[in-house]
Every structure is written in structure tokens, then in C-alpha cells.
Amino acid sequence: MLDVEELHVKEEDNENLENKIIPNYDEYTVDNRVEHSLYENFTHIRLFGFKINNNRLIEGRTWQEILIKTSEFLFNKDSKKFISFENNKNMNGKKNKYFSSKPEGIRKPELVANSIYIETNMSGNSVRNLIIKMLKQYGIKVSDYKVYFRADYSRINRE
Q: Where are the beta strands (DSSP E) in 18-157?
């Protein structure tokens, strides 16, 4: 049973929700042809896609999708190297594995090329850091990996 004080708080919460201004997300759309490097902060950034070595643009709307598609690209380049990430301590976290032949032990596993599971429960900046590690293992310069944005919501979160 609610007491009078709790009722008052619930009414205030409902009023705050009604008064909350919903931003016009179209105002935060950015030019998706502008290249960005992996050395940027990706908090509140929404992706459009990426390129490796000036190959064709590979589209992806989430960081998890970009991670999976980057992994597939690298797997197709050298599958043995990619599968070796499972036992490479530099390619896994201190407590959790990022790569595994089994989905157990990974919070949100995604199967790459029907061969190896990869952890996708990560922030944009964590995905970026893992992609940088993978590129280095393949001898690909980080500067040869370009990211394209769809939207930048960082202004909303500063207000």
C-alpha cells in the first residue's frame, strides 16, 4: 500500500516525464562520407560503416555489427591467425575471453564465419580497442581503417 508521500513522489515523476523534451534526432545526423580514425572518442556516436585499406565501404549500424564484420573481413584474410586469438592472452580481457570456440563463458557471443565466437557485449570505445588489437595482429596500420558516422549525439548528452 502506498502512503501519501510515495504518491506525491510518483506524481512528480510522471510530471517530469511529461515535461521532458524529446530531441529531434535528425538534427544530429552527420555527413556519412567524412572519414574518421580509430583514435577518436566514440561515446554517443552512431555508425554508418567502415573501410579497411581503401576497400569498399562495409556498412554497419552498431558497434557490435562493425566488430563482427571487421572480424569476418580479417578471418577471410587469414583464418588461422584469427582462430589463434582464442589462446592469445593479449587478444583477450584480464577476466573474460573475447574469442572462444565455445559460446560458454562469453556474455553475448556471436559466431564469426561459423568458426569462432566473439564477445559483443562492449561499449563503442571497447570495440574500437579490440579492433585496433586485431589490426595490429594482421600487420594492418590503424590509419588504414576508416570509420564513417551516421549521427553524433554527444551534444544531447552534454545538455
A: 35-36, 45-52, 58-59, 99-100, 109-112, 116-119, 145-152
